[in-house]
Amino acid sequence: MAATDKALAGLRQMIASGELGPGAKFPPEPELCDHLGVSRSSLREAVRSLGALGVIESRHGSGTYVSALDPAAIIGRFSLSVELIPLEGVLELLEVRRVLEAHATAAAAARQDPELAARLGAVLDQLESTTDATEIQHLDAEFHGLICAAGGNPTVTALTDVIRGRGGHYRIFEPGADFDAIKQTSDRGHRAILAAITTRDPAAAATAASAHIAQTELWLRALRPDPQPALP
Amino acid sequence: MAATDKALAGLRQMIASGELGPGAKFPPEPELCDHLGVSRSSLREAVRSLGALGVIESRHGSGTYVSALDPAAIIGRFSLSVELIPLEGVLELLEVRRVLEAHATAAAAARQDPELAARLGAVLDQLESTTDATEIQHLDAEFHGLICAAGGNPTVTALTDVIRGRGGHYRIFEPGADFDAIKQTSDRGHRAILAAITTRDPAAAATAASAHIAQTELWLRALRPDPQPALP
DNA sequence: TGACCAGAAGTGGTCTGAGGACTTACGCTT
DNA sequence: AAGCGTAAGTCCTCAGACCACTTCTGGTCA
């Protein structure tokens, strides 16, 4: 087995065996090298690998630690790779978002939380009064994010956040001939979702969310050929 | 900005800008070091990071390449981290699987594919005639995997695969007092799913799949306190 | 002419050693 | 008791050397 792979397996084993739980500190690098039988270079490459996956965190001057192993945080690491996926793959991901967000929106509607409806309404008021693409994207993310969070499953929220972030690189709301029509359709979709949440109708909420995201999928398909995504 | 982060950003930018598409080859390491202004160690750590995320592949003696950037393959990389998530987080993930797999199962039922039903029936025949925990797990994965694949979205299949793989580390089917009852309930759940697919009833398929996975969630909850997962 | 094989060039993989940068904790001073 | 400087601990970066694997090239042999 290659040196880096050996180190990788050793580090994972230390976590999986329960020897080191969430937040625990690893021994210093020289000690780990000795324990795993690899050089410092190989060990560090293995640590970087697990760091990229959100399993390990290295803190300069302090030490190397097991992360919280929180599913939402780990899924958040997806954004580093998902942001590089071409449009073709983004459409597959959007189907995932559509299904998950319909579920979360229904769950949010089932809860009796008048404050949520009030906050969503405030966001939509802002959203409907702006034509700035960046602000639209930001407010749209806040609207959907609030709903998903109210759905009660942070993992679902993290997944939909990552996918929404990728889709956001494609600028649907560029000034152009269709801008007004697209904006109006989008605004109506948001109001339909809010109405279902306000009236506590989970089935209607799921349908409205699903339809809204399906509409986004259609707009994205129209954007082919694949434009270049903008990295943050 | 730290050296490794600088290299990481540079590599991602080369992909995001379209300079290097899926499958493209990076310049040799010394050239990249010069271009990015970092040492070879730092560059290699950055390459390992993107390698762990499934964005880059290094082939010994050949070169470093951009991966296919296929969403299913990228999601598959997450098994490395998901396998380390504690039970508490696995339950959140199972809700994701339940929702996605209900969707995929409905899609599979909507398709008119007699061959799928035949293959599923064969798998269930084997599954019902064994009591070996490892074989049960394997056949269960094949059953659900075939259905998800028939659903038509490889990304959904990859996600459910990863989550199912994590859940499989918890041995529900250990020989014990409840073994027979659990096995029978599980078998009945599978038959209900197959029946819905055979009769091409998407709604029934979604319900059956959702109920089946919800049952798994209940069994897992009963397993607390968290047992140690077994790495492959 | 074709297939096969050996060598050379190109490239990533690993190790070692050194010095720098940051965090943390200790002990001193006020 | 609070604040601060110092020292120890730890990770970060660089440089150079050598090894292992892949790929291509050229020659040899059937």
Automatic annotation (TrEMBL), chains A, B:
Keywords: DNA-binding, Transcription, Transcription regulation
Keyword check for Transcription: yes
Keyword Transcription: yes
Gene Ontology MF, one: DNA binding
PROSITE patterns registered for this protein in UniProt: HTH_GNTR (PS50949)
Source domain of life: Bacteria
Domain (HTH gntR-type) ranges: 1-69
InterPro entries per UniProt: GntR_C, TF_FadR/GntR_C, Tscrpt_reg_HTH_GntR, WH-like_DNA-bd_sf, WH_DNA-bd_sf
CDD domains linked: WHTH_GntR
UniProt-recorded name of the protein: FadR family transcriptional regulator
